[in-house]
Specification:
The structure holds 2 protein chains of 2 kinds. Chain A is α+β, with helices and mostly antiparallel strands. Chain A is built from 10 helices and 4 strands. Chain A has a 4-stranded antiparallel beta sheet with strand order 2-3-1-4. In chain B, 31% of the residues lie in helices and 26% in strands. The relative contact order of chain B is 0.19. By secondary structure, chain B is α/β, with parallel strands linked by helices. Chain B has helices at residues 41-48, 74-78, 96-105, 111-124, 140-152, 170-185, 197-201; strands at residues 2-10, 16-25, 30-34, 56-61, 64-65, 81-84, 158-162, 189-193, 206-211, 214-220. Classes of the chains: A alpha+beta, B alpha/beta. At the A-B interface, helix 1 and helix 8 of A face helix 2 of B. The structure holds adenosine-5'-diphosphate and magnesium ion.
Amino acid sequence: MSFFQKYVDLHYKNFLEALQRIKQQPVGNLMTIVVIGIALALPTGLRVMVNNLSMISESWNSATDFTVYLEMSIDEKSANDLARDIEQRSGVGDVVLITREEALADFQEYSGFGEALDTLGENPLPHALIISPADGANSNISELAKTLNAMEETNLVQFDTAWIDRLRSILELTLRVVDIVTVLFGFGVVVVIGNTIRLEINNRQDEIEVTKLVGGSNGYVRRPFLYSGLWFGFAGALIAILIIWGILGLLSSPARSVAQLYESGFRLIGPNFKETLALIGMGTFLGWAGAAVATIRHLRDADPE
Amino acid sequence: MIRFENVGKRYASGREALSGASFHIEKGDMAFITGHSGAGKSTLLKLIALIERPTRGTVLVNNQNTSRISRRKIPYFRRQIGIVFQDHKLLSDRSVFDNVALPLLIGALKSREVSRRVRAALDQVGLLKFENNSPLTLSTGEQQRVGIARAIVSRPELVIADEPTGNLDPELSLEIMKLFERFNQVGVTLLIATHDVELIDKLQCRRLQLESGRIVESSQSSSHGDSM
Ligand SMILES: Nc1ncnc2c1ncn2[C@@H]1O[C@H](COP(=O)(O)OP(=O)(O)O)[C@@H](O)[C@H]1O
Ligand SMILES: [Mg+2]
């Protein structure tokens, strides 16, 4: 047998033994694994949520209503004619006229400035058209907006996208927060696993001592603990995936009703294959890292000096 | 095989366990370290296995100056030495077989070769029939013999034993010593610490006596220990 094969065998054995050892204390270890799972699920779940919201906001972008404010000199009849005219253009779905009177009434009702406006005497608002693009007419909307803006009768073309932009920047910010949460919880996983491994080292002090006395190197003594950590991280990641899909399952039917309400084909999207692999890899790595920290700190004792 | 040159060991507590011990043990020898409890017998053996480091003087083992062996190299150094402990240091959650196999598992041996050697070692101490038992089911004398099997399983040239008969009655003690003599006859160098002078008077072996941290007597016990 080659040295390399022997080495691989040894690792494989440690790998299985570590699993065996975890199974020996199912309750305590399962609790640890669930804690790790929750700690991994939280940042991942937040990321999934933000991804879904980004997707919604993107789908909204394509077909947005916009408002055209007309010149003050335009009277209601011309405004109406203009509305009918615009309605005939390609890419336009609906055009609704909001007369200056209606606008003022709305404003008085919702702004809370009702009485202040009364003192103005004259209505400062122009007629406005709310234009909804036709379905599937995404590309020529900005074209249309430009044309409308160039017309003599119009004063200002305003996209109602400010709130989408705002949502976007909030999502952007949320992603940053998720990054921070990811780092914090990753650190938490390292600490939890490190502590678990520390306890295991304490429990197996005799075995460690004897192994060192018969010539087991530090690497040899450490290896089973590293594999324990690896298993904890791996199992925790699996639990995290279960938690995330469980929550998505619970949310999918309310999400569908919301989507129906808005006549959108939106559907909740879970982590894809690559993201799932990344989560498992991350959990496994963090488990290994936690065990490495614990063994480095606690395995030196059996040596002289 | 073992050479101490003016070796001193002062523990961090300030207690000086050895102060200028010198002796030499040839390859193939079997020798006893005697001395009252607290004389420094265990300390001396610990210096040989690098469980402790001397605070002065030189310890040579198998022509290696132990002060030159770095922490990282200690495990490989220890693989040349079989150690028998007074308290056996057996792992109670493993079978007798697995306990004895421990020194072989850290090396690169095929599992078939491991089984063969473990069985041979257990056979030599007369415990082959207990290979699947837990050490807890064995008597103290049997446990001590499992510890001895573990010390010799990797066929070291040097075996050190710290009070291997400490808890045994005279009959069992003599049996254990006879076992060591058999190892010695096949060329193993042995250094055994004991305070049981009566026991070693029955054996034809060299005796090193520790007194106030030095080796004060170095004689053949063939003369029943009453002459220098
Ligand atoms: N780790 C230690 N720290 C401090 N003092 C120690 C330590 N080990 C042994 N001693 C002291 O060194 C002396 C020699 O101890 P030891 O070598 O165990 O003697 P023996 O084995 O002959 O009974 C004793 O006084 C003991 O208290
Ligand atoms: Mg002692």
